[in-house]
Amino acid sequence: MRRRLFTLASAVSLLLSLVTVALWMRSMWMHDEISLVKPQLGVSIISLHGRIQVEMVSTDRPAYVESWKWTHKRIGGALDEIQDRFSWRFGGFWFFEFDGFSVSGTNSFTASGRTFVIPDWFLIGLYAVPPLWAFRSIRRRALKNHCSECGYDLTANISGVCPECGTPYAV
Length: 171
Prior knowledge:
The chain is an alpha+beta fold. The chain contains three helices and seven strands, in the order αββββαβββα.
């Protein structure tokens, strides 16, 4: 049962990895954004220039309507405009925090929030680990004259039990 569950998780992880590769390629010419707006809170996930940008913004003005929104347009996005203001950068990861950003006019409000940027290559590598691990264990089990559980070489063993892990096998 555990093996099947792990195989299923590996298949889902491989699918996520392939989807991330497709989104990475798309992000080179398209700016995709998924937003959730709730009273006094907004969350956006943006795919742009090979990066995933997660923004969380809170305001002192409640939103009139709770909604989901998906937008996509040609390149020319917010990440390029504010990348000089990021608090820290390391290995493609960026973080930016703003507090007290004011917009004046008839609908004036004050906003504060956080932006975290994750490179697509990191997500692809993270999603690729379980399928690689599953492939390694499948390959190990498929070796002839080896234990199906631990991979121990059973070439000269005639006892019918793996001396390494105790798993019975057909002689």
